[in-house]
Amino acid sequence: MSEQDDWEREFDLTWADGAEHKEPSARARMLAARWKHDPPGPVPFRAGPEPVRGRRSSWVSTAVVLGCVAAVILLLGYVDFRAPH
Q: Is the pTM of this model over 0.85?
């Protein structure tokens, strides 16, 4: 075989997928080792919805931001008005 054929065979995915033994990924090995000593608790298929918090906080933060923008605009207008032309 030529060097090009060796290179193609080395990275041939169908050849790799056909392997009899597949080594688990590093993450799978890490989780298996961790769960061996401390198995995870049961987890529901779908978690329940998060409790709805008051939507006021988003409105308050929006009002604060808009108020700051308005204050900066007014301050810049006042400084421009006071500046000698």
A: no
In a domain, 85, yes or no: yes
Domain carrying residue 83: 57-85
Instruction: Report yes or no on 11 lying in a domain.
Output: no
Residue 20: what pLDDT? Answer: 77
Report CA Rg, the chain: 32
- Residue by residue, DSSP assigns the chain as --HHHHHHHHT-HHHHHT-S--PPPHHHHHHHHHHHHSPPPP--SSPPPPPPPPTHHHHHHHHHHHHHHHHHHHHHHHHHHHS--
